[in-house]
Amino acid sequence: MEETSREAVATAVQRVAGMLQRSDQLDKVEQYRRREARKKASVEARLKAAIQSQLDGVRTGLTQLHTALLDVKDIQSSLANVSKDWRQSINTIENLKDVKDAVVQHSQLAAAVENLKNIFSVPEIVLETQQLTEQGELLQAHRKLMELECSRDDLMYEQYRMDSKNTSDMNLISIYFEDVQRLSDELAKQLWMVLQRSMVTVRRDPTMLVSVVRIIEREEKLDRRMVDRKKQTGFIPPGRPKHWKDKMFQVLEGTVSTRIEGTQAVTREADKMWLVRLLEITRKYVLDDLIVVKNLMVQCFPPHYNTFNRFFSLYHNAVSTRVKELAWEDLEANEIVSLLTWVLNTYKSVEMMGHPDLCSEFDINQLEPLLPQEVVDNLLSKYVKTFTSNITGWLRKALETDKKDWLKETEPEADQDGYYQTTLPAIVFQMFEQNLQVAAQIDGDFKEQVLKLCLKQMNSFLMRYREEVVVYKEEHLRDRQLPQCYIQYMIAIVNNCQTFKESINSLKRKYSQALDPFDSDAAIERTLGEVVKEGCQFLLDEVFLDLESHLNELLTRKWLAGSHAVDTICVTVEDYFNDFNKVKKPFNQDMTNEALRRVVVEYLKAVMQKRITFKNADERKEGAERMIKEAEQFKFLFKKLAAGEDTDRLCGSITAIAEVFKLTDPTLLFLEVTTLVSKYPDIREDHIQALLAVRGDASREMRQMIIGTLSENKVSYSGTTQPIFKDITVPTITTTMTSMTSMATAKLLK
Questions:
Q1: Is residue 487 part of a domain?
Q2: Is residue 538 a part of any domain in this protein?
Q3: 149 with 237: CB under 8 angstroms?
Q4: For this UniProt entry, which segments traverse the membrane (predicted)?
Q5: Of 463, 389, 458, nearest to 427 (Cα)?
Q6: Three-class SS of residue 266?
């Protein structure tokens, strides 16, 4: 207490010190004193009120405890009196057992009297219930059935209570009410029939469906009541619980399954499009039925049934089961695509489960996939295998058809620009296009896979195409009169390669998002290049086969005497190139340049073969002037045919050699040869020797001096231009004799 007083004084001192920190605050001392006095009086009043309240509570509590003590004593006294009276009345209760039995018997007799009317009227009620059931008055029939079941169950229960071991009486009751179970079964059949036709019933007579649901709900309540009574008494009537609600859902599930399974109207034998028709019918049925469920059937069932979601799941499961069955059938490639497109795209689209009328009721993203990924992968693998086999056969058949066209006596068709072509590229890429369009409907990754497969097959096809072109050329060489349009179809083959290339690039742009090149791109490019190169070579070979005899006349005595071989060569080349105008660019340009080069090389070969040796200066001059004139003819012709910039250089090689022949002063021969070598550094020593041999006036010493000097001051070939003399061989004496013998033999045979 003293410590509390000290703390109070210390606190008061601090407060006073806080109030009187400045001299001007001394004038307010009286004001501070009155304020503190009011506070003290307020605190004391609150303390007194609190203490008084606590004292009042304690007083009330003591009063209640005293009252409770008195009540406990009264109860204790009453219990003692009750216990005394109970002990005294035990004998009296035992004497009332007969009364108790009489009461029980009276209760049973009262129940029997109460049900007597129903018992005697059972046959009549059974007949009436039968008629109501047959007439479709299901609610009335069920009410009568409930009356019968109630009478039977009450009698059985009373018998069970009286003597649960008396089975004979139980059997007697069961036999008397045996028609009740039959009526229950017949009514159930009627209910299941209505449920099986629920989609039709809900449109025509929804009240019938509502009645069925009400009956089932009543039976569910009775089932629960009987189960609860069994827990209490151990008795349950026969046929309970009926579980009609569970049976209802089973019937609805079976109805949905039957609805989906019954959509197949035709088979593959009757209609190739059987699967497309089946899937479309299924789509229409499911969509129409679910819209009916949403708009009509939901109103016929209690809300807690969650009717729409239940039916949505039933249809999904039924469709999934049916689709799995279809997936295990031996489907063709187009059928696999139809099935997967429907499963992966159509099913969740706005055309079916994603329809606007259904989306508001159910989230389709919560649906399980119709087909497991493993099954989808197996179908895709099967499709790829079948597609590979089919496309190989299609390409083979297309090539065989194109080969037959090569033998026709009519020219191939021309495109809008006038270039020859066959139908092969269009047929091939139409097949690719169709299959890629189908693959695109399934999945983007699968589309890329099919595109890669198409390109791989394309490469194999082009290799076979190349082989067939070679065979076509070889068969033509056996009889050059056949086929009649060999040139035109070989041109079409070359043009086809360009079309193939353009179509491949078009397919990749349209169906591929990949930035990196495909594995088969390089092989396809290489094979196409080889086919084009060989095709152009075969065309030029055809030209030079016709020119062979005229090329053999060059630089011979007949040529020097005034042969028209070069005129014929130019006319023939121009005539052929009128046909070669049907070759697409840039191949026609390449062929023109190659033809010029081959003509010049053949001309130079004629010089190097030393078919003639000039006897005097006049022959050399005449031969040189003729060579210069013919070089100009070649230049004019090939410029007319739009040859490349190398025309002057190639034709100039003939002119340069002519200048060597034309030279009249032998002492200047070295200078002229040096000029020739500087222009064409790929010319070799054996070429110079052949030229000097054809000239005919160069002594052995002069030839050795020219060759030796050129060897010492050999000009290196830079390789910036394509060599001319590199592949020209100079025949030896033996080769020359053999060639002359062959030419003589050929003339004799002619």
A1: yes
A2: no
A3: yes
A4: none
A5: 458
A6: coil
Name the band, by pLDDT with cuts 50, 70 and 90, for residue 265: low
Please indicate, yes or no, whether residues 343 and 425 belong to a single structural domain of this protein: no
Phi, psi of 526, rounded to the nearest 5 degrees: -65, -45
Q: CA–CA separation, 383 vs 375, rounded Å?
A: 12
The SS3 of residue 233 is: helix
Please report whether residue 6 resides in a domain: no
Domain coverage including residue 524: 377-533
Residues β-bridged to residue 414: 420
List for the chain the helix, strand, coil content (%; round to 5): 80, 0, 20
Residue 221: exposed, middle, or buried by beta-carbon count in 10 A (0-12, 13-18, 19+)?
exposed
Measure the CA–CA gap between 364 and 615, rounded to whole angstroms: 101
Contacts of 72 (CB under 8 A, 6+ apart): none
Q: Are 723 and 717 in contact (CB under 8 A)?
A: yes
Neighbouring residues of 593: CB distance < 8 A, sequence distance ≥ 6 = 643, 644, 646
Question: Is the pLDDT reported for residue 737 higher than 80?
Answer: no
Residues linked to residue 420 through DSSP beta bridges, in sequence order: 414
Q: Which of 155, 252, 166, 258 is nearest to 201 (CA)?
A: 252
Are the C-beta atoms of residues 257 and 267 closer than 8 Å to each other? no
What tokens were used for 643?
């040859």
Whether the CB-CB separation of 322 and 260 falls below 8 Å is answered with yes
**Same-domain pairing of 274 and 414:** no
- Within 10 angstroms of residue 715's Cβ, the number of other Cβ atoms is 14
Residues 491 and 616 in one domain: no
Do 629 and 599 form a contact (C-beta atoms < 8 A)?
no
Which three-class secondary structure state does DSSP give residue 108?
helix
Q: What is the reported pLDDT for 22?
A: 72
Domain-embedded: residue 283: yes
Distance CA(486)–CA(455), nearest Å, equals: 29
Domain boundary among 320, 344, 371: 371
CATH number at residue 383: 1.10.357.50
Residues 199 and 337 both lie in one domain: no
Q: Is 328 exposed, middle or buried (0-12, 13-18, 19+ CB in 10 A)?
A: exposed
Number of H helices, E strands in the chain: 28, 0
Q: Is pTM beyond 0.70 here?
A: no
What confidence score (pLDDT) does residue 634 get?
A: 92
For range 662-682, the mean pLDDT: 86
Q: What is the b/e burial string over 536-567, where b = at least 16 CB atoms within 10 angstroms of the residue's CB?
A: bebbbebbbeebeebbbbbbbeebeeebebbe
The tokens describing 90, both together, are: 């035990």
In 3D, which of 644, 712, 724 has the Cα closest to residue 676?
724
Last residue of a domain, one of 351, 371, 391: 371
Quick check: 742 pLDDT over 70? no
Same domain, 325 and 469: no
DSSP code of residue 164: T
Could you tell me which residue, 302 or 174, shows the higher pLDDT?
Answer: 302
Same domain, 241 and 267: no
> Coil, strand or helix: which one is 517?
coil
- Quickly list DSSP for 381-450: HHHHHHHHHHHHHHHHHHHHHHHHHHT-SSPPPB-TTS-B--SHHHHHHHHHHHHHHHHHHH-HHHHHHH
Indicate the SS3 state at residue 8: helix
Amino acid in position 51: I
Number of domains in the chain: 4
